[in-house]
Amino acid sequence: MLQVEHVTKRYGKTLACDDVSFTLDDGSVTVLLGPNGAGKSTIMKSIIGFLKYDGEILVNGLPNKSVEARRILGYIPELPSLYPNLTVSEHLEFIARAYRMTDYKDRIEMLLKRFDLYDHRKKFGDELSKGMQQKLNLCLGLLPDPQILLLDEPMIGLDPHAIKELKLVFEEMSAAGRTLMVSTHIIDSVDMLWDRTVIMQHGKVKANVARRELDESGESLTDLFFEVTEGLSPEDSSLSENAADGAGRDDGAEDAAAKKPRRGLFSR
Fold first, then answer.
1. 265 inside domain
2. Going along the chain, which residue ranges are E strands?
3. Where are the alpha helices (DSSP H) in 218-265?
4. Is residue 233 in a domain?
5. 21 in helix, strand or coil?
6. What pLDDT is attached to residue 266?
7. Per-residue pLDDT tens for 63-83?
8. 50: how many CB neighbours lie within 10 A of its CB?
9. Is residue 266 part of a domain?
10. Residue 193, helix vs strand vs coil
11. Which residues of the chain are under the pLDDT cut of 50?
12. Whole-number pLDDT of residue 75
């Protein structure tokens, strides 16, 4: 379980996060939505321990910056940060050793094959295309099999096959009791995957809604997003959907993941 309690973060006079609170339950997939500048990346970096802030963040009851919490908390940033002089395989080897993993060779091979990087495993970081860099970024975050994983715009730059695989990974991790928070602007890409949505605007949490509650209301996630951030009715939001920054339709989002998750990547 991840608990964010009354977190406030300032950059000088700018209030990036204003008394933000929410809880992520075990085995849940939470979608973090909001316009540019809403505070999404700031709260994620605060959770992972990159920033100083006021308030409290607990990971399974432990302070998020403790060594014990860091071992079970994972983060996949929006922009890959790769070493130009390390190959794809060496990047994964580096992460495995940093986490003191054992018997990780098969897992590395499986991830490389799953995200179509196996044939590129000897390429250096600066030789990869942007899409391949993002795939490696995902593999690096998934390799330690964290109990709680934060992903910032994970589908940007991915091809349809990789998007499909990532959706399957979400399903598998949730089924295995892992906890995920996915920050994105592409609402349609996660519309069928989430259990709860947290919508931020101007550094505040404007909505914290379970999927069950939204289904009972008959609204879609896009409807809710526009109502919260722009004060639009569902009819108005449908007209504005393609024009708004937060609801751009991703080419790979139509390639829906299979309902039955694959076995073997994650276990309880």
1. no
2. 2-11, 14-24, 29-33, 54-59, 62-63, 73-76, 148-152, 179-183, 196-201, 204-210
3. 221-230, 234-240
4. yes
5. strand
6. 52
7. 999 999 998 999 999 989 899
8. 13
9. no
10. coil
11. 234-264, 267-268
12. 94
pLDDT on residue 87: 97
Calculate the alpha carbon distances from 104 to 24, 96, 108, 109, 261 in Å.
Answer: 28, 7, 6, 9, 22
pLDDT of residue 185: 81
Q: What is the DSSP letter of 94?
A: H
The total domain count for the chain is: 1
CB 72 within 8 A of CB 150: no
Structure tokens at 34: 């909001």
Tokens of 57: 């963040």
Collapsing DSSP states into helix, strand and coil, what is residue 222? helix
Residue 103, in any domain of the structure: yes
- Which one, of 56, 55, 101, lies nearest residue 74 by Cα? 101
- Render pLDDT for 109-123 as a digit per residue (tens, 0 to 9): 999 999 999 999 999
Range of the domain at 92: 2-254
CATH code of 120's domain: 3.40.50.300
d(CA 92, CA 115): 13
Q: How far from 109 is each of 22, 81, 116, CA to CA, in Å?
A: 36, 21, 10
Contact by Cβ (8 Å): 44, 78:
no
